[in-house]
Amino acid sequence: MKLNTDIHIFKDNKNKMTKIKQTQNKTYAQQTKEILFFYMNLPVEDLANLIINRYKLNELFEKSTITIRTSFIKEELIHLHKVYKALLTKLPDLKFSQLLLYLFEDYFKRHT
Question: 20 to 30 A from 100, CA-CA: which of 25, 31, 36, 51?
Fold first, then answer.
């Protein structure tokens, strides 16, 4: 398994994460783990609906990247890879990086 994982997110969401890092003293890794854990507990069908509603959104906004130690979010990544495979039946063109992008976007829409 890779040592680090690059996650592409919208620049606006990275700015929100930076603000949380400064005000609440939560690292990017801690925030990422929190976000991914939140989606681990949603039923696959709910995730599918969420992704379908956000599909193709990534062309509209500027993106940024965060790099997280893979071992810190290993459990979440393993679970989301399984969910991703199930989502491919409905969205065969979906990339795993897009799934993560949409999850971060949805999380910040819900929580900010």
Answer: 25
